Amino acid sequence: MPEQVSFIKIKGTVDGLSFYTAGGRSIVRRAYGPSKERIANDPKLIRLRENNVEFGGASAMGKALRLGLMVTKLYASSDLPAKVTALMRSVLVLNKGIRGKRNIELSKHKTLLNHLDCNSQTPFTNVVLPSFECSGDRNTASVQYTFRNMNPAADIRPPQGATHFQIFQIATTISDYHYNEPMESYRPINSQLNEAREITNSNAISLSDQSVDVSLVTTIPGITNLPEHVSLVHALAIAFFREDNNVHYKLTSGCAMKVIGVY
């Protein structure tokens, strides 16, 4: 596939050529397919319009999840947006209704999201080896996990140069999405409870420690008794540091994040 090597960065379609970024490279290809005008008006393309609308809804809900988890490039591989959009699309097609207007009801299919790894190149369970206990409480919008008798020297696989690590716990709420007729697009059923979040973290733990217990409780403030159409998503992340003169410098490699529960 041709690669754009000019210092001028172009995005979009120009004179029949499509410019976009993939894997950190600037790519150019010939634009194919019907025009936007034809897609919007041709009766023969009604199925395509329906698919486009539903894809937009799945993409919007996937973005809400990524924002709710506050996933950064340190914790995610480049394929995460597409992977999460596909996951939300799989939730959508399980619902009944008119094509192009079917609700995206994660609340009814929570197990599809459980165990989502944000970084396919660095899976969380390849970095953090021991098992842990986790739970969530919808009445208080809180989540909890506990590692017991962790031996960092044996149970954690750090990147080269790391001396310490931290565990982060994330709780976020994601509303189901429905098709909004006046806006002709998908919107969260409950926008106030969509992407609400809270993050807590452990202290910096030495990788040379022999046995530690790690436990965190994370509560999203101001929320109680979540309605049925809102899911409570629970994730863990790990980051590594190098200690130098009693200062911990965060490393850019080895980080991992995983959804460990949806309640």
TrEMBL record:
Protein name as annotated: Uncharacterized protein
Phylogenetic lineage: Bacteria, Pseudomonadati, Bacteroidota, Cytophagia, Cytophagales
